[in-house]
Amino acid sequence: MIRNHKGKKFVTYISDLKIDHIVTLLKEDKKIRKYSNKALADEAGFSSTQKFAQAFHAKTGCLPSFFIKEINKI
């Protein structure tokens, strides 16, 4: 059903929602930007830091550390 409506697998759809949530938090809350990748993965509900980093990169095109570095410049 998700594949038909969203054009992606259910797991990918859920991962994208989790990453969208973290991206929003990072943009709105400077305190969150100081979290480790492990803490960000936990906050988003990923089972491992590696899965979080892979999903983050797949969704945003960059690693979480680079994203945070760039957003801190703004």
Write up what this structure looks like.
The chain has 74 residues and is mostly helical. The protein has one domain (2-72): Orthogonal Bundle (Arc Repressor Mutant, subunit A), CATH 1.10.10.60. It has five helices and no strands. Helix 2 packs across helix 4 and helix 3 (37-44) packs across helix 4. The protein is globular and about 40 Å long. The mean pLDDT is 93. Pfam families: HTH_18. This is Helix-turn-helix domain-containing protein. Residues 1-70 form the HTH araC/xylS-type domain.
User: What is the CATH T-level topology?
Assistant: Arc Repressor Mutant, subunit A
Low-confidence segments, given as residue ranges, are: none
The major pleated sheet works out as:
none
Overall pLDDT level: 93
**CATH class call:** Mainly Alpha
Number of domains: 1
Give the second-level CATH assignment, the architecture. Orthogonal Bundle
* Alpha-beta content class: mainly alpha
Task: Specify the overall morphology.
Answer: globular
Full CATH superfamily name: Homeodomain-like
Topology:
Blueprint: H1 2-6, H2 10-28, H3 37-44, H4 49-60, H5 64-72
Annotation keywords:
HTH_AraC; mainly alpha; Arc Repressor Mutant, subunit A; Helix-turn-helix domain-containing protein; 74 residues
How would you concisely characterize the structure shown here?
Helices cover 72% and strands 0% of the residues. The chain has helices spanning 2-6, 10-28, 37-44, 49-60, 64-72.
